[in-house]
Specification:
Elements (H helix, E strand, L loop, with lengths): L5 H26 L1 H10 L7 H29 L3 H25 L5 H25 L39
Helix pairs in contact: 1-3, 1-5, 3-4, 3-5, 4-5
Length: 175
C-alpha cells in the first residue's frame, strides 16, 4: 500500500474547504436567510462575531482537509475515482451534518425546517466538495498506491479424452 501524498491532501483539502466555506455562506445568508436571523434573535445568539467567523472558516477548511484525507485513506481499498470520493463525502456528511443537525434538533437547538434544510444542503455540499478535492489529489507515480487489477483466471483445461468412456465414479443416465 502506498503512502498518502500529504501535499496533495493539503491542496485538495484547501480547495474542498473553500467550496464548503462558500457553500455555507450561501446557505446561511441566502437560503436560510431571514429564518436563520429570526432563529438567532429568538435564542439570543448575538450573531457571528469576528472571532466566531474566523473560527468557523478555519473549522470548515479543516473539514475539507479531513474529507480529502479520508478519500486518500480509503482509495487503496475502494479504488481511485469519483465513486470513492462520493463515499468519502457521504461519510463526512454522516459524521458531521447528520450527527450535529439531528442532535441539535433532538435537544431543541434547531427547528425542524432549519435542520432539514441544512441536512439536504450539506448532502450535496459535502460529497461535491470532497469530489473536487479528490480530483486534485493524486499519488505520485511509482508510489505503489494504485491497486492493480487482478490477472484474469486461466481457462479451465479440458478433460483428457477417455475414448468415449465416462469418467470414473459417474454413471450414465438410466443405469
Amino acid at each position: 500500500m502506498g503512502k498518502i501524498a500529504v501535499g496533495r491532501v493539503i491542496i485538495g483539502g484547501l480547495v474542498a474547504g473553500l467550496i464548503i466555506n462558500i457553500s455555507e455562506s450561501v446557505l446561511h445568508a441566502f437560503i436560510l436567510g431571514p429564518a436563520w436571523m429570526d432563529y438567532q434573535k429568538i435564542h439570543n445568539f448575538g450573531g457571528m462575531t469576528g472571532g466566531g467567523s474566523i473560527t468557523m472558516i478555519v473549522l470548515l477548511f479543516i473539514l475539507g482537509l479531513v474529507a480529502v484525507w479520508l478519500y486518500a485513506a480509503i482509495r487503496p481499498r475502494f479504488g481511485a475515482g469519483p465513486k470513492t470520493a462520493i463515499y468519502a463525502g457521504l461519510v463526512i456528511w454522516l459524521l458531521v451534518s447528520v450527527m450535529s443537525n439531528l442532535g441539535g434538533l433532538a435537544v431543541g437547538v434547531y427547528t425542524s425546517s432549519i435542520a432539514i434544510t441544512m441536512l439536504l444542503w450539506t448532502l450535496v455540499e459535502m460529497p461535491l466538495a470532497t469530489f473536487v478535492g479528490a480530483w486534485i489529489y493524486r499519488e505520485e507515480e511509482g508510489a505503489g498506491a494504485e491497486v492493480a487489477a487482478p490477472e484474469p483466471a486461466a481457462p479451465e483445461t479440458a478433460a483428457p479424452e477417455t475414448g468415449g468412456a465416462e469418467p470414473a465414479g459417474e454413471e450414465k443416465e438410466g443405469e
